[in-house]
């Protein structure tokens, strides 16, 4: 085989550049599912070593891979008109509770993304308030509730007492059983205690008063206390396992809907 003249400069040719880009996306489509699976089993401690300047790009890459993996595999297990809403508390402009460098709004995005992934893998149609590192405001999250079979927003609790721990899911009385099951799913992974009524908090008895997301029919899960160093570290390291257990509850709920 004879190479073209000046083959070392071939990368400058538009045809070569387009071909390389096409090959990259073709490979991403082919192996997106495998990439996501590998990404899921990488410990969070190792992911934390990703340089800050690269985190946004990695988040976008993972988000694209998740979308492509979902497009490749869509088992029709459920009615296409049914869907689950999964949102992350607070937003990119509202950090929520903060513990040192840890921000609630960043923390909960990880669980939201993982939960959405597992639900989609099971064939459940999912709507979220963002992809990757995106975390839209509450007003956007509330709009997603209408028409969904269940809407779950992920939060982290906080307290002045740094020893405070526990899991709770806030909802209207009609969703008491589901709220308790979601809290127990988290407890199965973290071993933390269930707050309120076996993991359920009736919004009418919540110290927070009426919450717009709950008033519109959604459930708010407080995974644990970000103010507690040990609990926040545990949740961060087991975020994908927590999401997987929650997904089992929602998948079963969807099957009965």
Which secondary structure elements does this structure contain, and how are they paired or packed?
Elements lengths: L13 H28 L2 H4 L4 H21 L11 E5 L9 E2 L2 E2 H18 L4 E3 L9 H6 L6 E8 L10 E4 L4 H15 L9 E3 L9 H4 L3 E7 L3 H9 L1 H18 L1
Parallel strand pairs: 1-4, 1-5, 5-8, 6-7
Antiparallel strand pairs: 2-3, 6-8
Question: How many runs of DSSP E, i.e. beta strands?
Answer: 8
CATH architect. name of the largest domain: 3-Layer(aba) Sandwich
- The span between the termini is 63 Å
What share of the residues lie within helices? 40-55%
Written description of the protein model:
- This protein is an alpha/beta fold.
- The protein folds into two domains: 19-73; 81-256, Zn-dependent exopeptidases (Aminopeptidase, 3-Layer(aba) Sandwich).
- It contains nine helices and eight strands.
- The protein has helices at 14-41, 44-47, 52-72, 104-121, 138-143, 176-190, 212-215, 229-237, 239-256, and strands at 84-88, 98-99, 102-103, 126-128, 150-157, 168-171, 200-202, 219-225.
- The strands form two sheets. It has a six-stranded mixed beta sheet with strand order 4-1-5-8-6-7.
- Helix 1 (14-41) crosses helix 3 (52-72).
């Amino acid at each position: 085989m004879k190479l073209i003249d000046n083959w070392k400069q071939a990368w400058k040719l538009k045809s070569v550049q387009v071909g390389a880009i096409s090959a990259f996306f073709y490979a991403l489509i082919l192996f997106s599912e495998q990439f996501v699976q590998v990404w899921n089993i990488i410990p969070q401690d190792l992911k934390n070593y990703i340089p800050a300047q690269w985190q946004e790009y990695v988040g976008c890459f993972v988000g694209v891979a998740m979308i492509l993996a979902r497009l490749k595999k869509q088992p029709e297990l459920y009615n296409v008109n049914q869907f689950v809403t999964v949102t992350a508390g607070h937003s990119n402009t509202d950090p929520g509770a903060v513990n040192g460098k840890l921000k609630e709004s960043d923390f909960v995005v990880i669980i939201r993304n993982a939960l959405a992934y597992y639900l989609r893998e099971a064939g459940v149609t999912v709507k979220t308030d963002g992809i990757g590192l995106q975390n839209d405001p509450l007003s956007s999250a509330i709009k997603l509730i209408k028409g969904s079979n269940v809407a779950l927003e992920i939060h982290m609790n906080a307290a002045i007492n740094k020893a405070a721990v526990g899991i709770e899911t806030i909802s209207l009385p009609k969703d008491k059983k589901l709220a308790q099951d979601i809290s127990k799913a988290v407890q199965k992974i973290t071993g933390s205690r269930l707050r309120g009524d076996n993991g359920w908090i009736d919004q009418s008895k919540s110290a927070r008063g009426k919450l717009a997301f709950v008033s519109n029919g959604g459930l708010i899960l407080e995974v644990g206390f970000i103010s507690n160093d040990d609990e926040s570290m545990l949740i961060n390291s087991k975020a994908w396992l927590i999401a997987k257990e929650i997904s089992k509850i929602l998948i079963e709920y969807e099957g009965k809907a």
